[in-house]
Amino acid sequence: MNIQAKYLFLCSFLFILLFLLLGFLLEFQTVENLDERWGRMWYQFLKADSFFIFMSFIGSRNFLYPVMILVTIFLLVKRYYFAVMVVWVNILGVRLLNTLIKGIFQRERPSLDHIVDVHFYSFPSGHAMNSMAAYGMLALLFLLIVRNRVIKILTVVIASILILLIGTSRIYLGVHFPLDVFAGYLAGAAWLTFLIGIWKKLRSESKERKYM
């Protein structure tokens, strides 16, 4: 197996273990009470409703799907056909996975006044999970296409800040507990590293076939 794919699968497995540990800890009332207390501390900690509503929006499907369509058009023009498939498997797969996991844990939303409309269960945060997978994948594609080292570093920094702010916005807006967001990051990272691992493995095998 490709060594990079092996380490990516290992990372994915570790992220899954951490996610399951977090889910287990939430069974204890002390942890849940502490999570609720943290959520109240972060709830509207600044007078910046418009900013955090916008950050929440760019982590939603209403923003991400149009972005993915634009990315798809760019990749098709560049003839990166396999990358197009990976992009859509990533974004659709992570949303389906989030729905399934929420249905298993069935954690209710915070009792705070929600500044934005929400539906379904709270754990893990869909915005945190989706943003980790989507913006993580976009950052990876950018790293593969762009050669300038400074731009590569900026790409990673900007993607990381976006992901962090999107998750923070969900706590600020009162629609998620902090551990919902952290769990979303872990689940999104597990999915992303697993998918990239498969991508690396398939690319390695296709190269080997060319020389057989």
Give the helices and strands, then pairings.
Elements: H1 3-25, H2 29-42, H3 49-57, H4 61-77, H5 81-105, H6 126-145, H7 149-172, H8 178-210
Helix pairs in contact: 1-8, 3-7, 4-5, 5-6, 5-8, 6-7, 6-8, 7-8
Summarize the structure in words.
The protein has helices at residues 3-25, 29-42, 49-57, 61-77, 81-105, 126-145, 149-172, 178-210. With 212 residues, the protein is an all-alpha fold. Helix 3 (49-57) packs across helix 7 (149-172), helix 5 (81-105) packs antiparallel against helix 6 and helix 7 runs antiparallel to helix 8. The radius of gyration is 18 Å and the shape is globular. The two termini are 16 Å apart. Residues 208-212 have low confidence and may be disordered.
Query: What series of H and E elements makes up the topology?
Result: HHHHHHHH
- Please give the count of helices: 8
- The residue-averaged pLDDT reads 90
Structural class: mainly alpha
Strand content: under 5%
Shape: globular
Which terms summarize this structure?
212 residues, mainly alpha, globular
Summed up:
The chain has 212 residues and is an all-alpha fold. The chain has eight helices and no strands.
